[in-house]
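Can't attach files on this board, so I'm pasting raw text. These are the components:
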Amino acid sequence: MKFLGYRRPDGRVGTRNYVGVLSTVVCANEVARGIASQVKGAVAFNHQQGCCQTPPDLERVNQALIGLGRNPNLSAVLLVSLGCEGTDVALVAKSIEDCGKPVQVVAIQEEGGAAKTIAKGVLAAQQMAVAASRIPRVECPSSELVLGLKCGSSDTTSGLAANPALGVAVERLVEEGGSAILGEVTEVIGAEHLLARQCKDENVARELLRLVERMEQRVKAMGVDMRGGQPTPGNIKGGLTTIEEKSLGAIAKIGGTVIQAVYEYGQRPEAKGLVFMDSPGREPELLTGMAAAGANVIVFTTGRGAPQGFPFVPVIKVTGNEVTWKKLQDHMDLSVHGVMDGEESLDQAGRRVYERIIETASGVETKAEVSGYVQAMDIYVTGPVI
Amino acid sequence: MRRDAIVIKRQDNVATAIRDIPAGRMAEVGVGEQSVSVTVGMDISFGHKLSLRHIRSGEEIIKYGTVIGRATRDIQPGEHVHVHNVESTRGRGDLA
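---
Top answer:
Structure tokens for the assembled complex are below.
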């Protein structure tokens, strides 16, 4: 299948064509927002990180910002810096530039305050936006799609309809040469031995098990056992029998697709096909990690109705719950509740999910985009704030 | 045809109820585009599982094409499959 996308100098394909105004540190968020709000076609990426953190976390922030800047949904990047932050702004700017994209930096302490920085940033972003508007959409193969996968506010319908339907779509996309990223390490706990069997080889399986164990150890260090009490009494009442069954309901998002490689948070996959990425389940960090890894479309399945979107990657909401579909019209993009009614097969539902991915990649807007519900963003850090 | 339960993958030996199914009903179970009939032996609630065939004690319970646990006793076709006749191969939340 083909879609209409924006081909970038590095060969990657965007499904959107924004000027990215990326804040390099929590202290510069107001200015980044101020610039983006005055330029049509510009979007701000804000977060709570970039200073007073351990070196490994600061490196993670650098890498996440590089990944976000390189995301093909951005035609150009304006970095908004305070001037004294822990983030290595020069490295971030250089690394983004290396993929052939225009990059400029404005720094609040250098320009002399927020007002002057916003004024300078607005003028720069305006030029970038005009240049971006010259780039046409061109026909691209579906193999250029990098699909981020997410589920949230799940219920019984997630494991039975929305996730398996997405699994059918992922199987098809990967067959066509496209890529997909599974994250949410916490969702995998209990079924990691089963997911390991879906890995390409033993090395990949070992990497995956290591990520799961590392996440569990982090949580254990806080005195919490994530395995205990799973499935919950509420899960059992709802019909879930074992922790494997519960986790498999979430993993159903990948269908029978083989996991080709395992990556750190926000790392851009070199492998084609399905990959697994270290990430928590929470929306801002997960969506940001997917975007940093280069996802150009994200599919987010939900039961009870999750509203979150991301500033520059379309997030398609798919639900299998008819009540949610009717009640949360301003957040839901596609319903597969016909599977729950017994009126539609998973294969049919999966085909519709796939078609919506192609349409969205070609420019059809998601509910999150048209409603502006696109602020679920932050960079995942694992150490203390100092 | 209005389905009562669905099978996620063809190799599964259990189906999941997509509505409450009363005891004695000949349930329509969707398998891909087709459906099969199974008489349910007891009330099965929405979201709960029923057996598609005879499953011997110790045999694996397959859903999503994958092992979700092991039968702790013989299970008849159409029987409710849950914590009373299945245990995890990992650890059981309700016994934790």
